[in-house]
Write a structure and sequence with these properties.
single chain, 49% helix, 34 helices, 812 residues, globular
């Protein structure tokens, strides 16, 4: 995109005046950011219109990616890079005595996601646009996101993430594209000329209003769309007559009912009302999105019978699984199709990605709740289930146990994962081992019936954000060394292997790592008043806090290392800085206890002069994309230590390796494929295998008390949780003690403890040999191109969605 420098400067000054009625000297940094953002968006809109126009004219197949979260990260810098105008903009602002970095820092982080699921969705949108593929996102415009995490006295405290308080410069509200979503009420059935007609009555209407955000491709003309839906009242939001009678709560009851739908991501589901709200959100998303897609489709085509040839609808995990019955409802109730016609179109259009084998994440809803909130959708699911169970009976006559286990409605629940499998044409896992476990364990019965549906698409990350943007010094070195082709073709990073033993290249890379560590150390000093040694090993575990991700194993090892250092202050130890980050679900008390334990241990170690700063521990609060962009480039060691078989894939492991960190991990998720790519010499693997874990679950044979009684180190650190060693109430961590011993250590923390300690000793030895360590680091970067989301999206495009690139011309 070519933009003249002087014209841009003049346009920026005019935008400042129009938006704020102030001169540049009077305008705040937020005002300058908003002016710059609006100006960039104005430039993007021109190409956005051309993209949509050419998609409309060419009538090629498009994909719509439904996800309950999109963890986008800040947009300004990414858009400037993709438009290829960042140097020019930086120069213009410098002439106006404005620092672009200051404006980028003040930009709010979109509160649209939380963890790997949302970040994957964001990476996929980036790759779709950069590969010139016609693909769009469909999500919810959360007013307050998940939450802003504060750590107070070591405890996680949740505050509203008011990311929209100054608006979102990148979005365009489209009220003329709003649709109505219906909840509750009852269904009246009429016979009209021999055909049953279903009429929804006495429902609560909600207006779904779309806000569109542009998704730019890298240095091309493609601008795809992320459509985010906001819930607004259809009828008057304020009941004046109720207010006049003093019924103040009732006066705003409908408005509150509606607006709650798009207020918060993942409301605390320990309360029944919030469980219902979660179900509302999921239906709101798919109903609004599908109505919009069908309306757009009908502008281009006469017949809905060709929908699977022109539209692919992808369900990212089980949250949008209601797309199956909602598409059936639209085709039958609004378009007049019969069941068989509608079902053929539905299962030819929808595909599904499974992201977990954890039972609590394979959603299910109580029948009574579901039927009351979504009466027509329940009727359709009931019919899908009846037909599916008849199909199973014909295949497995008399096998009631199998049929009950596979039913979509069973044991008083509606099972979303079962619905997604039955109602889609493709079911993919997100790493080879995860897909194998789906086929052989979790969804074996479904695989036996539908083997042709199951396939693997290993997750990926966008190298443009996680290397080009997050680590510009390393990106520049790579381009200077092997050329810039890797930015468009990330597999070309493999050419770095030619320089793995090149001492000049190693030294440059080592200096870049040192500079990145200095940057992170300064951030930690500014935020937490903690000095850390930039020559220490930066050992990092940043991800959602969960027992299976085993932050607990990490902190228990730190306690053991601290104990050894106290016993022998002169022990041979390379200085370590242990860095944690991540949020715990508000109702997940064990995860919140782990955060408290990390911070308690950190306070003890960081203030112990005997340690002489050889160990430092820090928990970085409110982990998000912007913080991740500081952490990954500075990291030496990447902790990927989930219980084998539990992590579907992981993408943090890929971001770390792309920035030269070495993985310490179990044979879980994509760790296995990373090991296969970099070879065993360039990764640190430990612990139980997935088969060993599954066999323990299946047959037993593990007793954590045996380890407690036979390993003095384990006994000591576990006792320290409850004996007053830590400066807290003695029962503060009793739940962790009990979880590990009395609850039989569900995630094998103690079983893997000794192998984990041993592999950390190996890390220290390798790190001392700088040439060997840098060689390992280069191997990881070189093989990281395999894990670019560009590669993954190409596999989705050809193997599942059947979409083709569309080059958008300037003349559109």
């Amino acid at each position: 995109m070519v933009i003249d420098k002087e014209n841009f400067k003049q346009a920026f000054l005019e935008k400042l005046e129009v938006l704020h009625g102030e001169s540049i000297e009077e305008t705040s940094d937020m005002g300058k950011y908003r002016a710059l953002g609006n100006l960039i968006r104005d430039q993007i809109i021109k190409q956005w219109i051309k993209t949509n126009k050419q998609y409309l004219e060419r009538k090629e197949k498009e994909v719509y990616y439904f996800s309950l979260e999109f963890l986008l990260g800040k947009q300004l810098d990414k858009n400037l890079i993709n438009m290829d105008i960042k140097p020019m903009v930086k120069e213009v602002l410098k002439e106006l005595e404005i620092d672009l970095d200051d404006l980028e820092n003040i930009e709010p982080e979109p509160g649209l996601g939380n963890g790997g699921l949302g970040r994957l969705a964001a990476c996929f949108l980036d790759s779709l646009a950069s590969l010139q593929l016609p693909g769009h996102g469909c999500g919810i415009r959360y007013k307050y996101g998940l939450f802003e995490q504060k750590v107070i006295d070591g405890y996680q405290v949740e505050l509203p993430d008011n990311w929209l308080k100054n608006g979102n410069v990148w979005e365009l509200k489209k009220p003329d594209k709003a649709v109505e979503v219906r909840f509750g009420g009852n269904i009246r059935v009429e016979d009209q000329n021999g055909k049953m007609i279903f009429i929804h009555e006495n429902y609560d209407p909600v207006l779904a209003v779309p806000y569109d955000m542009p998704v730019l491709g890298y240095k091309n003309n493609t601008v795809n769309t992320l459509r985010l839906w906001s819930a607004e009242p259809v009828k008057k939001a304020f009941d004046f007559s109720s207010f006049s009678r003093g019924e103040y709560a009732r006066a705003v009851e409908y408005r509150d009912f509606v607006e709650a739908i798009s207020q918060v991501l993942y409301p605390d589901d320990s309360y029944y009302e919030n469980k219902v709200l979660r179900l509302k959100q999921e239906y709101f998303l798919v109903s609004a999105g599908l109505q919009s897609i069908i309306r757009r489709y009908k502008k281009k085509y006469d017949s809905l019978y060709h929908l699977p040839d022109k539209v692919a609808i992808h369900v990212n995990d089980t949250h949008p699984a209601l797309a199956v019955p909602e598409l059936m409802r639209i085709l039958m109730d609004e378009e007049g199709m019969g069941w068989d016609e509608a079902w053929a179109i539905t299962i030819g259009t929808i595909s599904y990605t499974n992201h977990t084998i954890m039972s609590e994440a394979l959603e299910k809803w109580p029948i009574d709740t579901f039927k009351s909130l979504l009466p027509r959708i329940y009727m359709i699911i009931h019919e899908i289930n009846e037909r599916f169970c008849r199909e199973l009976w014909n295949k497995y006559p008399g096998d009631w146990n199998r049929i009950r286990d596979m039913a979509i409605i069973a044991d008083n629940y509606v099972k979303m994962a079962h619905l997604a499998v039955v109602g889609s044409y493709s079911v993919n896992g997100v790493a080879k081992i995860h897909t194998d476990i789906l086929k052989k364990e979790v969804m074996k019965n479904f695989y036996d019936v539908y083997p042709y549906k199951f396939n693997n698409k290993t997750n990926g990350i966008t190298h443009r954000r996680w290397l080009l943007k997050a680590n510009p010094r390393l990106a520049e070195l790579i381009s200077d060394t092997i050329g810039p082709g890797w930015i468009r073709r990330p597999q070309e990073l493999v050419h770095l292997l030619e320089y793995a033993d090149d001492t000049a290249f190693q030294d440059k890379m080592d200096e870049i790592k040192r500079q990145n560590k200095i940057t992170l150390a300064k951030y930690i000093k500014d935020m937490y008043d903690l000095n850390i040694d930039v020559h220490s090993i930066f050992d990092v575990q940043v991800k959602r806090i969960h027992a299976y991700k085993r932050q607990l194993l990490n902190v228990l090892h730190i306690m053991d290392l601290y104990n050894r250092l106290r016993e022998n202050p002169d022990m041979d130890l390379v200085s370590r800085t242990f860095i944690f980050g991540g949020k715990a679900a508000p109702a997940y008390h064990m995860a919140k206890s782990i955060i408290k334990l990390i911070n308690t241990v950190a306070a003890v170690i960081n203030n112990d002069k005997l340690v002489k700063d050889r160990i430092k521990v820090i928990f970085l609060e409110n982990y998000n994309v912007s913080l991740a962009e500081k952490i990954f480039p500075a990291s030496d060691v990447s902790e990927q230590i989930s219980t084998a078989s539990k992590e579907a894939s992981g993408t943090g492991n890929m971001k770390f390796m792309m920035n030269g960190a070495i993985t310490i991990g179990t044979l879980d998720g994509a760790n296995i494929e990373i090991r296969d790519a970099v070879q065993s010499d360039n990764i640190f693997i430990f612990g139980l295998t997935a088969d060993e874990v599954l066999n323990f679950y299946r047959y037993g044979g593990y007793n954590p008390w045996d380890i407690y009684h036979n390993d003095e180190r384990v006994k000591t650190i576990l006792n320290q949780l409850i004996n007053g060693f830590l400066p807290i109430e003695n029962d503060e961590f009793k739940n962790i003690f009990n979880f590990l011993l009395y609850n039989n250590d569900e995630f094998f923390v103690l079983k893997d403890f000794t192998p984990y300690v041993d592999v950390h000793n190996r890390i220290q030895d390798k790190y001392r040999n700088r040439r060997k360590w840098l060689n390992m680091s280069i191997h990881n970067i070189a093989h990281s191109g395999k894990f670019s989301s560009d590669c993954t999206i190409n596999e989705y495009a050809t193997g599942i969605w059947k979409i083709k690139p569309i080059a958008i011309s300037d003349n559109g």
